Each structure stands twice: as C-alpha cells, then as structure tokens.
C-alpha cells in the first residue's frame, strides 16, 4: 500500500533515493523495483533487518532491474550519515508526526537532497486524525506515538521555511480512516483475534482491497480521498539557487 503517488512524483532508473523512516519498507521496495539506488533508513533495528531480508529476496527473485541497488541501515533522522547533496529523491512517509524537532528533520532532508531534487512528505490528515485523538487517548499517548496533528498549510509553510518549493498535494487512503476510527472506539490495543468483530471485519475488507484492487473500491477511494483521506501528501523540489527560490 503506497501513500506516495509515483505518477505525480516521477522516479527515473538510477535515481539516488533516501526513504527516511522507512518502517517496513513499502516505498523503498517500490523505488527498488523502479530501478533506483535506494537507501532505506530507520532507527528501528528490527525493522531494518527485515527490510534488508526483503531487499535480498527481491534481488534473488529478479524483481529489480539491472543497475538498481538497495541498502537498509539504522540511523538518526536528525543526524543523517550522508554528505550534502547525496540524493536525487527523499521520501518521508508517516514519520514527521512522531518527531519533536520536525524542523530539524526537514533541515537534514534538505541538506542531503541535491539542488533540483524532489521530496515527498506524508503525514496523517488533520480531520481524520482529530477524530482518532478524540476517540482514544491511547492512540496518541503511547511511547513513540503521534505528538502533533498537521494542518496542510502548516506543513507546507514549514517546508517552504526549510527552503523547499512545494508543487503538489493530495490525500490518500480514505478507506483506512473508518478502520482507525473503529480501532480507536473499541481499543487500539486490541489486535488480531482479540479485536472486536467490527474491527476484524473491516480489517479483512482492507486486506482484500489491497490484494485484489477491485475497480469498485478503487473508484470509491478516489472519490472519498478529498473528503476523508487518512493521509496528506505534499511534493516539493529543492531550488537550484537562493535567487530562484525567491523568484
């Protein structure tokens, strides 16, 4: 399940890509399949080891084209272990809402992104996220949980302050908002067989949708995304010069 729309965020074979806070690696895997030179970075060592295993399996299965590379590594988003201008593309998906110093993370991403490079930022959308917070304190008060809710103009403003030039936005995953509302209403800590029937039933629907991608749910989600899309997605470029940024 991808949050970044690669039809709006073009990726060329050979692009150097940083998936920052990669988690389970969904965007890193897609970039690898598209022929990029991918670095998947996360502070969670267990997840990074799993991502590395999947990279190896993809290579073995021939899922990545010739010339594509993939590296999984632990790292700190506030102190990236890369020189300036190291990447053509940076992706940070559903991460910034967890980090107290979000301006520091943006500064580091801009530092390692080459002039003319592209960045994709995704965060939980304000409206659906407010519902989750209202329904459940446990949803956002757990260690490492969400510490803020972004309004779209707030996030875009911070991106501009960091030296980026936003060029497009959209919303994603409308079908997932009701699932999280149900989770919050019945208890976010109740998973698997312990989850109440409505939560389990809706989860099965989402899994079916992800696996089968039926036309009906694809059309429904596209129609609902502007209204209740769970994620807000913003795309931006790093200008070549300060003068161009001020133009």
Automatic annotation (TrEMBL):
The keyword Transferase applies. InterPro entries: Methyltransf_11, SAM-dependent_MTases_sf. Residues 18-120 form the Methyltransferase type domain. It holds the Pfam family Methyltransf_11. GO terms for molecular function: S-adenosylmethionine-dependent methyltransferase activity. The keyword Transferase applies. CDD domains: AdoMet_MTases. It comes from the Bacteria. One of its GO terms (biological process) is methylation. Keywords: Methyltransferase, Transferase. PANTHER family: 2-METHOXY-6-POLYPRENYL-1,4-BENZOQUINOL METHYLASE, MITOCHONDRIAL, METHYLTRANSFERASE. This is Methyltransferase domain-containing protein. It comes from Streptomyces melanosporofaciens.
């Amino acid at each position: 399940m991808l949050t970044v729309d690669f039809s709006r965020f073009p990726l060329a074979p050979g692009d150097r890509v940083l998936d920052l806070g990669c988690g389970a690696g969904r965007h890193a895997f897609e970039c690898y399949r598209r022929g990029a030179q991918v670095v998947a970075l996360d502070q969670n060592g267990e997840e990074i080891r799993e991502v590395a295993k999947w990279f190896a399996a993809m290579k073995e299965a021939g899922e990545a084209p010739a010339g594509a590379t993939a590296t999984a590594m632990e790292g700190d988003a506030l102190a990236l272990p890369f020189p300036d201008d190291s990447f053509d593309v940076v992706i940070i998906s559903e991460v910034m809402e967890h980090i107290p110093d979000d301006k520091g993370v943006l500064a580091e991403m801009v530092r390692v992104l080459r002039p003319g490079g592209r960045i994709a930022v995704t965060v939980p959308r304000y409206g659906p996220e407010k519902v989750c917070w209202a329904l459940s304190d446990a949803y956002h008060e757990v260690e490492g949980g969400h510490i803020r809710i972004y309004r779209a103009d707030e996030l875009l403003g911070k991106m501009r302050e960091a030296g980026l030039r936003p060029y497009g936005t959209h919303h994603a995953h409308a079908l997932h908002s009701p699932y999280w509302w149900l989770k919050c209403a019945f208890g976010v800590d109740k998973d698997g067989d312990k989850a109440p029937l409505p939560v389990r039933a809706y989860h099965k629907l989402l899994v079916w949708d992800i696996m089968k991608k039926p036309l009906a749910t694809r059309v429904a989600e596209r129609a609902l995304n502007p209204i209740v899309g769970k994620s807000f997605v913003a795309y931006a470029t790093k200008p070549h010069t300060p003068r161009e940024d001020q133009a």
